[in-house]
Design brief:
The protein has 4 helices and 9 strands. By secondary structure, the chain is of the alpha+beta class.
Length: about 160
């Protein structure tokens, strides 16, 4: 995983509308970058809905939420519309940023070892420096965890 103190990756990705998105464009804001395996699957949907439901609490701290997966912009758009997601989804079909973050690799699920996306979240400060990493998350309540972390940082 990317080490605390590292800079946010400066790689161009496409959002759910096919528009170019650069993570460095969010300088001056906290960036909650959550990496998830696949649109519209049970765990990923629970996590996205958790962020959706906590978005007001998260954005109150001058933070943006960006979900990133290897899915296409078209898949992201359908996922976003289906669940009324109120934040950006970035497509990393080549897994460039996902790999830079250290969120691509070997993982174990139900006793089976595979290579793929490692569900994780990265919190970058307004200066683009990594503040905290969550290498394992509980999808259904992760949005609350991030809102609580931002509240603690802002004290």
């Amino acid at each position: 995983m990317l080490a605390t103190g590292s800079k946010i990756p400066d790689t161009a990705l496409l959002d759910e509308n096919g528009s170019v998105l650069r993570l460095t464009d969010y300088a001056g804001s906290y960036v909650v970058l959550y990496v998830y395996p696949k649109d519209d699957t049970p765990g990923c949907t629970a996590e996205a809905c958790s962020f959706r439901d906590q978005s007001s609490a998260i954005t109150a701290f001058k933070a943006v939420i960006i979900g990133i997966s290897p899915d296409s912009p078209t898949s992201h758009k359908k996922f976003k519309e289906k669940y009324h997601l109120n934040f950006t989804l970035a497509s990393d079909e080549e897994k460039t940023v996902i790999t830079q973050l250290g969120a691509w690799g070997e993982k174990t699920s139900y006793g089976k070892t595979t290579v793929g996306v490692i569900r994780s979240t990265f919190l970058f400060g307004p200066d683009g420096t990594l503040i905290k990493v969550w290498p394992k998350v509980s999808p259904a309540t992760h949005g609350e965890e991030i809102a609580a972390e931002l509240a603690q940082i802002s004290k």
